[in-house]
Structure formats: C-alpha cells, structure tokens
Amino acid sequence: MERKLIFFDIDGTLTSARRFGHVYESTRKALAMLKENGHFLALATGRAAFRARQFQQEINIPNMVCEGGNEIIIDGRSVSYELPDQQVFHTIYEAAMKRGVGVAIAPDDSFYRVSPNDRFHAYAGDFSRFMEVRVDPSLRIEAIPAIRRLFLSGEQAVLQEIIASCPLQGIGVMHYERDQFIILEPDDKYKGIRRMVELLGEDERQVVVFGDGLNDRQMFRDAPFAIAMGNAIPQLKELADYVCPSADEDGIYRACQHFGWI
C-alpha cells in the first residue's frame, strides 16, 4: 500500500456539518486506522495556530498547516511561518481610516486585537466569544512589526469598496457570522502543504486533501487528489476528484475505505 499524505480541513470536514465542532466516532476510527496503516495525517486550516491547537490535541493529529497556509506545525512544533503581504494590510488599513469604518489588527498569534478607536466596537457589536479588541488611540500601524490579520466592520457596501481598491495577493476575505465583520487573512492552504511535504522529504504526488468550503478552493485546484465532502459547496465539488458523504454520514471513513487506505 502506498503511503498517502492526507490533509484534512476542520469545520464541516472532520467535524459535523450539523453539530458544530462534533467529531463522529467513525471519523476518529478512520484516522486511527490511517495512522496504523502508515499514512501521514495533517490538518489544513485557515484558523490561527492558537485556535487550531486545541482541536489538534483533541483529534490527536500533531501535524498542521494553519494560518491559511502560512504556518507549518510538525509533531506539535511550529517549524515555519510566513507573514502575509504587509503592504496589502497597510493599504487597506489606511483606506479604512479615511472612510471612517472600524478596523482592528491581529499583531500576534493570540485572542487579542488592537484598534485605534472605538469604531470597530460600534459597528461590530458583541464579538467577545471570538476575540478581544483593545483600543489604543496612540496606535501607529507602521510601528507594528507583524500583522497577521486585519478586521473591518461597517456598512458592507463601503467595506467592499475598500477591499476592491487593493489587489489582495494571496489574502482571502472571510465574512464572520452574518457580516458582523470581515476578516482579511492568508488564503492558500496548498502553499503550506507543498512546503510541509518539502520539509518532510515526501512525494507530493501522494498528497490527498479533504475539504468542504470556500477557503479550500485553492487547495483543490493544486492538490494531486482532492475529496469533497457531501456538504461541500458546489464550486468545490466541481474541482474534486471524488465526492464522499458528509461526516454526518461517515464520509471520512467511507472514502478511506473506498480507496483501500484503511
């Protein structure tokens, strides 16, 4: 049996499409059997490392491509991190300040963000379960050495105009909840997968990816073999080499069994 390098998205892929964060026993069983059969497993997520680590421990997969492809974690240790294009963030930030919308910055891998005024809070409302935004009137963006993500809140039409004014160059746009705010973040998981495979000295031709959402599209375009979940968006299913049932219908287990990996 050829050793596969299998990368899993988290939400809606390893976890239920119906019960947020729930991992079925069939999925856990499939992962254990894949490991027993010698396959390499890793997560491939857009989440920040600090958000993904808890799930990583729960699911017992010590390898991870996170930060939308910009950070690589092998055996629980961060071995590579690439900053997003800082000029893009600076341009968007300045445009947001001129247009009077809310803006917040993620300067590190943590729950905390920083904002120059209270506009972000005024537009976004309560976001306390997701992050804490600290207001610092003395904030100067040029003094922040590393911007990991940028958050915008305000009228959607204005936010879209700001985003459209600047080529995003590898940075994606994620709408939080019902457009409570917008997150600008790295968005090329496969870049990280390719880098991880190089670091491991493995064969990229053996890569398999599982996913279901918008931020999996680049990964599906570039991966040698891509499997979409039954609950995946139509655009992803069109890019997939195979479509399996959702996790709620034992999709991970059934797909791995179908291809003889378990």
UniProtKB/TrEMBL annotation:
Gene3D superfamilies xrefs: 3.30.1240.10, HAD superfamily/HAD-like
Domain of life: Bacteria
InterPro entries for this protein: HAD-like_sf, HAD_sf
Enzyme class: hydrolase
Pfam families the record matches: Hydrolase_3
Assigned keywords, A-Z: Hydrolase
EC code: 3.1.3.-
A GO MF label: hydrolase activity
Alphabetized PANTHER family for the sequence: PHOSPHATASE YKRA-RELATED (PTHR10000:SF25), PHOSPHOSERINE PHOSPHATASE (PTHR10000)
Protein name: HAD family hydrolase
Species annotation: Amedibacillus dolichus
